[in-house]
Structures are given as structure tokens and as C-alpha cells.
Design brief:
The chain is α/β, with parallel strands linked by helices. The chain folds into three domains: about 1-190, no CATH class; about 190-220, no CATH class; about 230-350, no CATH class. The chain has helices at about 1-15, 25, 35-50, 65-80, 85-105, 115-135, 145-160, 165-180, 190-195, 230-245, 315, 340-350; strands at about 195-200, 205, 250-255, 265, 280, 285, 300-305, 315-325, 330-340.
């Protein structure tokens, strides 16, 4: 709704205030735009009514300080995954325009000073500030409202700086190739330098929490910056289809790993399902606080790659077997383990406490 409101306001500013048809048009809200304001008015009325009833908006909570989250937003939007290839042109245009204005203050250079460009630029900047105003976690999906507009703004700046059509097409083609490749691989050397990486089998992914210091591991929702994270879905299906967990099976993982990573399994195939009926409920327990289990219970530790290896596993558990699950070079290891206290009790014949 904020994005929609911003778009309506900037449409009015761009097409009626900055480029008025007449003096009277600039002084009033144009009649053709009035229907566009109806959703905004309805939202304000509904929000005000709910606030008066005590249903205040959830203000959320910062996971770390504002400055580091803001830095995560800036790097995620304008640097990561070759976004810097778009950023260089608005910066170059801004430097040229400011330099020209300093030399000739009466004349301001612009890449395309028409209402459409004013509208796009205004919506882009205002939406960006709206996202930054409410920092929570540095998840790239929060940047989606203004990222398409950033690409349009970058093209406008590039078109202003470069007049040769062939060079423009070459730049557009390079953008297309870089962003297409980045959908399925982490290739950008600048991003790797800034974030650092962690291995996911034969592949690399960005350590997305290295800048902000927020939860969880190398990243959880933060890893949704391209499609590589989707390999976890197929790997999970392969793991559960092989383990076929029952009520006597204990599944362990890093304490922060189970954010809907495991929930419902199909009782026949043991693959993950969204079905509302007839499913098997499965959950991951914290490797730091394993549940009490009988000496005969099967216990597995799933070593998800987006969490640092736990060097104390060998101190607390006997590793009975390690099974490697692989898909297209992406790997997750599953360790069959037994808590050492259970192993001692089983050996002495006392059983689990």
C-alpha cells in the first residue's frame, strides 16, 4: 500500500505539478486521478479504525543495530550479484550533472527530463527510503519493490551518458548475461570479496550475515538472493525418503536451522508436502539440547551447509555412519549418531534415564 500511495502521488507530481496544463491544473488534484486515490483512502480509514480499537501495527524488532542492517540493505541492493554494474551509471550521471551545475549553476543537466522519468525516479527514491525506514532483517526480498525501478533509472542514466546505440545494446546484453547467470550461481567477485562465502558442496554461496551479524548461521531467509537455495528442497526430499523417519527417529540440526525446513511429510514417499490431511509431522531438534531417547532410537544429525560445522559433535556424540546426499554438486551430509551418555548406559545395561 505504501508503494501504491507513492506511485499515485508521484504521478500527480510528475504530470500535473511539474508539467501543468494550466495554472488551475497545478493547483488541484486532477479529476482522472481521483479513482486511484480510493484504495489509499480506504486503507487509511481501515488502519485508523483498527488502531483506535487497539490493533496496533507490529513494529517488529531489530536483530542488530540499525546501521548494520542499513548497510546490509545498501550492499544487497546496489552491490550484490552484479548490482554494481547498474550502479555505476547513475553515479557517473550524477557526477557529470553536479559538475555541470557547479560550472553553470543556471543550467541543470538531466538524462531524460520528462514526466515519465520524473515519475519513475520519484517512486524509486521514495520506495527505497520507505524500505530503509523499517529495518528488520537484511533479506533481499524486502528490496523487491524498488529494484525494477532501479534498473530503469540505471538505463536512463546510461542512455544519457552513452549516445552510440551499439554500445548501449552491448551494455544491455552484458547486464542480461550477468544477471541471468547469477540466478543459478554465485559468480560476482565483488560480492564474494565483501560478504565472503561458504561451501555448498561443489558450489559457493554468499555469507549473507557477515555484514549485519544477524541470525542465522551464514544465512537462512537471507540466502534467497538467487535460486541456489532451492537445492535444499530436493536434498531434504532425498534425505527423508532414505531415512523414512518414524516416531522413534530423532532428527538433529543446528538450533536455528528449522525455520519450516521440515514439517509435513507424505506418509508414502516421505517427501515434503503441503497437504492438509494424512501427512506425517516431523520436526528437527536442537543438536545442543537433544530430546531424551531410548538407547535403540535412531538419531541423525543433518549438517546443513549454511551453518558452521560444530566441532563439539565428536565430543558429545559417537558418529556411527555418515551418508552424503548430492544433487547437481550440492551436498548435505547426514550423520547417524548416538549421544555418548546413551552409549555408556546401553553398554552398562542400564538403559536411558
Amino acid at each position: 500500500m505504501v508503494f501504491y500511495t507513492v506511485a499515485v502521488l508521484w504521478r500527480w507530481i510528475a504530470y500535473r505539478v511539474l508539467v501543468p496544463r494550466s495554472a488551475s491544473d497545478a493547483a488541484r488534484f486532477p479529476r482522472p486521478s481521483l479513482p486511484l486515490a480510493i484504495p489509499v483512502i480506504a486503507f487509511v480509514v481501515m488502519f485508523t479504525a483498527r488502531a483506535m480499537q487497539g490493533h496496533a501495527a507490529n513494529a517488529g524488532a531489530l536483530t542488530t543495530d540499525y546501521g548494520r542492517i542499513l548497510l546490509g540493505y545498501v550492499v544487497g541492493a546496489y552491490v550484490a550479484q552484479f548490482a554494481w554494474a547498474l550502479l555505476v551509471f547513475p553515479l557517473a550521471w550524477l557526477a557529470r550533472s553536479v559538475g555541470g551545475w557547479l560550472r553553470r549553476p543556471h543550467r541543470w543537466q538531466g538524462p531524460n527530463p520528462n514526466p515519465a522519468y520524473v515519475f519513475i525516479l520519484g517512486v524509486f527514491l521514495t520506495s527505497m527510503l520507505a524500505v530503509w525506514w523499517f529495518p528488520t532483517y537484511a533479506n533481499d526480498r524486502y528490496l523487491l519493490p524498488f529494484m525494477p525501478l532501479f534498473a530503469i533509472v540505471s538505463y536512463g542514466a546510461m542512455a544519457s551518458l552513452i549516445r552510440t546505440p551499439r554500445i548501449r545494446w552491448a551494455i544491455l546484453a552484458s547486464w542480461f548475461v550477468l544477471f541471468l547467470a547469477s540466478n543459478s550461481a554465485t559468480l560476482d567477485p565483488v560480492s564474494k570479496l565483501i560478504y565472503g562465502t561458504f561451501p555448498f558442496g561443489d558450489h559457493e554461496m554468499l555469507d549473507k550475515t557477515s555484514i549485519t551479524g544477524e541470525c542465522c548461521g551464514y544465512g537462512r531467509d537471507q540466502l534467497v538472493y538467487n535460486a541456489q537455495f532451492t537445492a535444499l528442497h530436493d536434498l531434504n526430499n532425498a534425505i527423508f525418503a532414505t531415512l523414512r523417519p518414524t516416531d522413534d527417529t530423532v532428527l538433529l540440526a543446528d538450533p536455528a536451522a528449522d525455520w519450516y525446513m521440515v514439517d509435513r511429510l507424505d506418509p508414502q514417499s516421505y517427501t515434503r508436502t503441503l497437504g492438509a490431511h494424512g501427512f506425517r509431522q516431523v520436526s528437527l531438534a536442537s543438536v545442543d539440547e537433544p530430546p531424551a531417547a531410548a538407547a535403540t532410537a535412531r538419531t541423525y544429525f543433518i549438517a546443513y551447509p549454511n551453518f558452521a560445522p560444530d566441532p563439539t559433535i565428536g565430543e558429545r556424540y559417537d558418529v556411527l555412519q555418515t551418508t552424503r546426499f548430492e544433487r547437481l554438486g550440492y551436498v548435505v551430509d547426514v550423520l547417524e549418531v548416538r549421544p555418548k551418555v546413551v552409549a555408556r548406559d546401553a553398554a552398562s545395561g542400564t538403559g536411558a534415564p
